[in-house]
Amino acid sequence: MKYNIIAIDPSLISTALVVSSGDTFKIYNYCRESKAFGKKGITKWFGLAEEFITYKFIEYREYKDYSEGELVKLKDYDKISDTIISDILENIDPNKPTKIGIEGYSFSSAAGDIIDLVTFSTILRKKLFDKISEDIFVLSPSTLKLESCKLTYVPINIGIKKEKWIYKNNVGISGGSFTKTDMFLAIVDNDCLDDYWAKHCKFTKTDILEPKQIQKPYEDVNDAYLIYMVLKKENQS
Fold first, then answer.
1. Cα–Cα distance between 73 and 68 in angstroms, integer?
2. Residue 95: DSSP 8-state
3. Residue 96's closest CA among 227, 1, 215?
4. Residue 111 and residue 104: Cα distance in Å, rounded?
5. In sequence order, what DSSP letters do the residues of 181-195 get, joined into one string?
6. What digits encode the pLDDT tens for the residues 81-139?
7. Could you tell me which of 57, 22, 2 has the C-alpha nearest to residue 217?
8. Residue 237 and residue 229: Cα distance in Å, rounded?
């Protein structure tokens, strides 16, 4: 591959990173240790994926009041983003141009959460821009859903006099309306995906689909992986 490719799904509690400078890639998840480990050791979903993901544990400090909290959060976001940048630099070829894809914000989040996420993501984007590459593509959540559908499923022509193509999965759900489960199935249903993460998702499909919702770290890692595949496909064409 002639490019480094970086794909990020930013989150306050479970940021996922897929980074590559060649034909393979590495996956990171930046999460709270308390989410990955319980009293009896590593939790089910983190344990199921630990062979394939490098976990980096993040900490948020306590604070006494609102003003102090806003400054403490800035320092914590700065530290976490520094760790992400360091991991990226360790895994890319400095002699290659770099393509970055990062998911945008979901405005369905609670007001406080979205403000904090915007703050964290802005700090991270600025560091990516300054230290890694200015070639950054921000995908809205709806765009990522549609692109996930396009990766796997055959387009349907609904035009009569003029071609009009739409994308749906095997059960008729439009790409723009995909849920996290539909995005997971876009990985599983794609016969062309045979890397280690796709193979793992296909092998553990029954387990992953058992809960009503896709659990962390899969939820975030799948998003970053799909961003990576979208960028990889675009830069192969």
1. 9
2. T
3. 1
4. 16
5. HHHHHHHHT-TT--S
6. 999 999 999 999 999 999 999 999 876 655 558 899 999 999 999 999 999 999 999 99
7. 57
8. 12
* DSSP for 55-86, written as a single string: EEE------SSHHHHHHHHHHHHHHHHHHHHH
For the chain, how long is the longest CA-to-CA vector?
Answer: 66
Q: How far apart are CA 188 and CA 186, in angstroms?
A: 6
> Strands 26-31, 54-57: parallel, antiparallel or unpaired by DSSP?
parallel
State pLDDT tens for residues 182-231.
Answer: 999 999 999 999 999 999 999 999 999 999 999 999 999 999 999 999 99
DSSP class of 172: S
What is the C-alpha end-to-end distance of the chain, expressed in Å? 12
At residue 21 the predicted structure's pLDDT band, cuts being 50, 70 and 90, is: confident
Residue 35 in contact with residue 50, Cβ under 8 Å?
no
Give the whole-angstrom CA distance, residue 222 versus residue 185: 10
Instruction: Specify the pTM.
Output: 0.95
| pLDDT confidence of residue 107 | 67
Is 28 within 8 Å of 17 (Cβ atoms)?
A: yes
**Helix, strand, or coil (residue 137):** strand
Q: Which residues sit opposite 165 in a β-bridge?
A: 157
What's the pLDDT at 236?
Answer: 76
